[in-house]
Amino acid sequence: MVLDRPDKRNAQRPEMWRALAEFGETLPDSVRVVVVTGNGPSFSAGLDRSMFGQLGAEVDAGDDSFLDTIASYQAGFSWLRRPEFISVAAVQGHAIGRPLQMEEISPGEARQELTSIMPIFIVNMLLNAWSAGVGQPAFVTSTVAEVTGFPARTFADWAADHVAEFVG
Predict the structure, then answer these.
(1) Higher pLDDT, 93 or 149
(2) Pick from 30, 28, 39, 42: nearest CA to 3
(3) Residue at which a domain ends, from 88, 104, 120
(4) Rounded to an integer, what distance in angstroms lies between the CA atom of residue 40 and that of residue 4?
(5) Over pLDDT 90: what percentage of the chain?
(6) Which of 10, 24, 121, 123 has minimal Cβ neighbours within 10 Å of its Cβ?
(7) Are 74 and 113 in a shared domain?
(8) Is residue 168 in some structural domain?
(9) Cα–Cα distance for residue pair 168/134, rounded to 1 Å
(10) Cβ(21)–Cβ(12) under 8 Å?
(11) Enclosing domain of residue 42
């Protein structure tokens, strides 16, 4: 499966999520592996930034159906967690100019790795918090701008500024 908006770094919009959800719903039972990649040098820039204005207006309106809308958007990727096949994200590291590999690990494996760098009570707190967030819409605030007086930076901007720390 290829995210195909290379002119926009494969930025995602609701129509893409709906198409991905439909693709997942109609996937034949015989499929055992799904590879997701992006056309061009970027896997995906994430949410199309041109949507920020309209999404903010929906949140500000306090419309409870907004959470249902977000859940329908997340359905574009949530089907990739189904147990009957393996899903692989073939991610291209745009800022560092090379592929990245992400490997999901179990909570037990994460606990073992994290306890080497932080106390167990913090590891357990983090794992519980991360687990509670699975399948939930991301909580977005304006705190960075309110505290610093500057808008929050995108992860892509941060990664590009710190590329030397990731390449040998």
Answers:
(1) 149
(2) 39
(3) 104
(4) 8
(5) 14
(6) 121
(7) no
(8) no
(9) 33
(10) no
(11) 1-104
